[in-house]
Amino acid sequence: MSFDTLGLDGRILQALAEEGYTTPTPIQAQSIPAILAGRDLLGIAQTGTGKTAAFGLPLLHRLAQGGARPPRGGCRALILSPTRELASQIADSLKAYGRHLGLSVAVVFGGVGYGPQRSALARGIDILVATPGRLQDHLDQGTARLDRVEALVLDEADQMLDKGFWAAIRRILPVLPKQRQTLFFSATMPAEVAKLAHEILRDPVRVEVTPVATTAEKVEQKLILVEQGGKRGVLAELLRADGVGRALVFARTKHGADKVVKNLAADGIAANAIHGNKSQPQRERALAEFRTGTAPVLVATDIAARGIDVDGVTHVIQHDMPDTAEAYVHRIGRTARAGASGIAIALCSPDEREKLWQVEKLIRQEIPREDRRQDVSAPMHRTAGRPDAVKPAGGGRGRPQQQQRRPQQGQAQRRDGHAPKPQARGGDAPQRRPAAVAQPDRKDRSWREADFRDGGSAPAFLRRGR
């Protein structure tokens, strides 16, 4: 199949030819005809398979054929994105695909001033790409209107429904027209996404080109078992190895990302960090230096797991295992894009073994591993039995089980299983704990009448408490 057979506007086909696109990916081939037919769509595909063009091309075709003018203060099509980087890349792609159509594309996200965004909205926009939080700010300020939206796209819908975006999305949806086309695109399908899809999609076409939460086929995966303190040396060694071009390193926290960059600089490796605490100019500069190779190592938190689309990323290295297993799939999807191959390496310390097991359960395979630990006593492999029933050594919700010491013969035992310390009482031997007294059922009120109304004594457990 080629793009020529999909029924797209000739001007779009001309732009695709100029971009070097000839054959649609599976998600594009299945989604574009349904969207051109006006159907709502739920698209599920792993990251890096071309979801942006899957919804962007038919969206541009529809707007170009409609010929309507964008409303002042509003837009004709709205695309919601979870991160600034992804929003910018979607806007850039749409501008490239629609360069011969004369349609306006604008992006709205936080971290920058409101002035230019207000001006763009005031003129009216054909396609608005926005993060939910900043768009909600414009709605609250009265500088944006959404009553003329013809099509709504939620890209990376699973991440959009994370706790940081849920409230804003719920406030945006009611101000949209009920008569519209709605498109969901996501790499995974958790219950929350399925629930929202059921609420707002009308008889949608479901397009699923790959099993949920599978990794890209051309990514060579590897796992290195190492103590937490040894990750710095292993990371530097990996980045100095032959064949490493652009490398994307993932850290779990913002502070951790900055610390990794500091350590790499001390080891003579140029790197930048990108995370939520960085200003927009800092993030753009870091991405620019990453693309040009000035700083070929970019250390990021999961904010960039789905927002960085840079060609030529040869390695993805996970300095820290992700908190959620799904994030592992999105992280390694930053390499092996557009048909290329890539290498994904995860550094896993013994205290991260639970996260490793969850990842392997999700992707339904064991990652090839190399053990560089000094202490190999901590188990890193699941034992026999059902994979989802295995718990870390020691049991008890991941807490190591304490070895119980039995009291010596004739010695009292505390509630925690240890012998009590001797207490001197006028030369007497340590006092033993009194035998437990049977206590009445406190829900049974009959003992109150028997012991108090008739002059009887209170129960033993009340007498001790006087």
UniProtKB/TrEMBL annotation:
Keywords: ATP-binding, Cytoplasm, Helicase, Hydrolase, Nucleotide-binding. Residues 440-454 have a biased composition (Basic and acidic residues). Residues 218-380 form the Helicase C-terminal domain. Residues 1-29 form the DEAD-box RNA helicase Q domain. SMART domains: DEXDc (SM00487), HELICc (SM00490). A motif (Q motif) lies at residues 1-29. It comes from Falsiroseomonas bella. Residues 399-412, 428-439 have a biased composition (Low complexity). The lineage of its organism: Bacteria, Pseudomonadati, Pseudomonadota, Alphaproteobacteria, Acetobacterales. This is DEAD-box ATP-dependent RNA helicase RhpA. GO terms for molecular function: ATP binding; hydrolase activity; nucleic acid binding; RNA helicase activity. It catalyses: ATP + H2O = ADP + phosphate + H(+).
